[in-house]
Amino acid sequence: MPPVGSRIGILTSGGDCAGLNAVIRAAVFRAVHTYGWEVVGLRQGTLGLLKRPVDTMHLDVNMFSGSILRESGTILGTTNTGDPFAFPMPDGSKKDRSAEVIEGYRQLGLAGLIVIGGDGSFRIMDKLAKQGNIPLVGVPKTIDNDVGRTENSIGFITAVNVATEALDRLQPTAASHNRVMILEVMGRDAGHIALVSGIAGGADIILMPEIPWKLEALAGKIKRLRDEEGRNFALVVVAEGVKTPEGRSVTQADVAGKVRYGGIGHYLGDRLADAAKAETRVTVLGHVQRGGSPATTDRVLGSAFGVAAVDLLAAGKHGRMVTWQNRHVVDVPIEDTISGPGGVNVEGDLVRTARGLGICLGDQ
Ligand code: F6P
To answer: Which domains does the chain have, with CATH numbers?
Structure first.
């Protein structure tokens, strides 16, 4: 175990979400109170390690006496564009700057590093850790909840709550105007937010990247609601990563040519208006799902993960990620989480629940 007086580092990487500060707070409390260690926050993910002097924030228990637990975002800042193995340079080229990141880590004299990230960040950090012999422990976060081997990632439930509340707000206006309301939620590769919020928010149709869909199935569902159940409205939830029936992702490029997901909601709105002879309106929820005060579950999970991550460093267990399984915090090799399945289990209980409720999942 690193002796009293040792320093460990912590960073957040990838897209932010609610609950990251709860992890940082818990890690600091555990490290300081239980092991007598100092905790150094690294700013902006690995970008802080590329700066000279390295961009850090001293993390003290006193910092967390106020509102930080209640706030989303990350006090450390984050990045999802600075892969040190293919770092984007001003002239448009890519450069391997991994050695500089490792050197930055060395300069801080750290006994280990906690990375709060998603599968993309873990892929990069695992490679860096192996190259630089860095004692690494991972904490899973992503609103998409698609990190393999853990039932929940930090930020997921808060995002689901936001999407569910959006459905609560859309239903009365849908019913008042006889409309089909389409809610596009995040979820690049996985439909967890769409599925869980759709069930909780009384959706009639849920589309996820894991289940291919047919327009006739959707139009048929809306027709049945109208003709057989006397319903004058419908609620549709679609994950941003859902492809068209032809298998095309709906994306948009910014002026610099960077491609982002988004647009499947409007694609669907246009086609459903025609196929179901319905008046449609589309709401794209976007980054609203990342913010807001963290849900209780994200604070509790964040606290449990923060404590457990520090305990792993104390036990000398490196290259591991803390996970939530069957109401327990357990640890698994980080590599497993990168390659393991993180999408919705199409044979799982929640898909069965949705089908049991008569929710159309697009395939029938
Ligand atoms: O991976 C999480 C996520 O929220 C995705 O659902 C979404 O596509 C992406 O991040 C958005 O990232 P950015 O913040 O770069 O727009």
So the answer is: 7-154+294-325 (3.40.50.450), 160-290+346-356 (3.40.50.460)
Helix (H, G, I), strand (E, B) or coil at 185: strand
Who contacts 26 (Cβ-Cβ below 8 Å, separation ≥6)?
302, 303, 304, 305, 306, 307
What angle separates helix 20-29 from helix 296-314, to the nearest 10 degrees?
40
Beta carbons of 235 and 247 less than 8 angstroms apart: no
Token pair in block for residue 196: 């869980």
Handedness of CA 106, 110, 112, 114 (dihedral sign): negative
Question: With a 6 A CB cut-off, is 153 part of the ligand 1 pocket?
Answer: no
Pocket of ligand 1 contains residue 244 by CB under 6 Å: no
CB crowding 69-91: b at 16 or more within 10 Å, else e? bebbbbbbbbbeebbbeebeeee
Ligand 1 center to residue 342 CA distance, Å?
16
**pLDDT confidence of 258, banded at 50, 70, 90?**
confident
Q: Is the pLDDT higher at 254 or at 102?
A: 102
Q: Taking a C-beta distance cutoff of 8 angstroms, is the pair 354, 195 a contact?
A: yes
Residue ID of nearest Cα to ligand 1 atom 11: 15
Assign 3-class secondary structure to 140-163: EECCCCCCCCCCCCECHHHHHHHH
Alpha helices by DSSP H, 15-113: 20-29, 35, 47-50, 98-107
Annotated active-site residue 144? The verdict is yes
Note the pLDDT of residue 340.
75
Cis peptide before 135 (omega within 30 of 0): no
Q: For residue range 158-167, list pLDDT tens digits in order.
A: 999 999 999 9
Ligand 1 neighbourhood includes 144 CB (under 6 angstroms)? yes
Specify whether the backbone of 249 is left (phi greater than 0), alpha (psi in -120 to 50) or beta.
beta
Q: Give me the pLDDT at residue 75, please.
A: 98
